[in-house]
Amino acid sequence: MKKKKKTLRIALLALFTAIIILQNFIPFLGYIPLGVLNLTIIHVTVIIAALLLGPKDGAIVGGVWGTITFIRAFVWPTSPIAPIVFVNPLISILPRILIGVVAGYAFIWAKKSFHSKIFAASLASVLGSLTNTFLVLGQIYLFYRGQSQVMYGLDTAALMPYLLGLVLTNGIPEALIAAIVSPAVAVPLAKRIK
């Protein structure tokens, strides 16, 4: 029985890794372009992995996404600022890993506290998504606020309102998508796997 469980875990990790790779390279599957910005939906895959497999495996799947983001910043950037900010692994890799960690542990805690898998999955999904948003944008502000004139055509004082605007236009819709889609996929899939 233990061998079957380990095999299933490895198969699911491979499946989620393949989905992450496809989402990164097939247009509109992982990034929905909205003018100069991209609405990201890849985090939903990381969250679903964390809900099904736990925080450790969620971190692995998030790390795959982060590593692809890091590499793409050099060879095939997803936005005009990607080659500037995502070449820093603290911005490209760390937040993606922490999506899985936060969503996984939040799900475990919320499931015990609220006794509702759907509510727990929704709450964990929002927290995982916002982890990515706040860590990426917060670190952009910390590391690149002195370079905002070059990067964004903004003076340093205008960088914070610009980043807060991104939270509203990208971060909140991404969190809402995660709160709806992740439980809708993960909860029935968890029942099916068991």
From TrEMBL:
The keyword Transmembrane helix applies. The keyword Transmembrane applies. Keywords: Membrane, Transmembrane, Transmembrane helix. It holds the Pfam family ECF_trnsprt. The chain crosses the membrane at residues 7-26, 32-53, 58-75, 81-107, 119-142, 162-190. This is ECF transporter S component. It comes from Ligilactobacillus faecis.
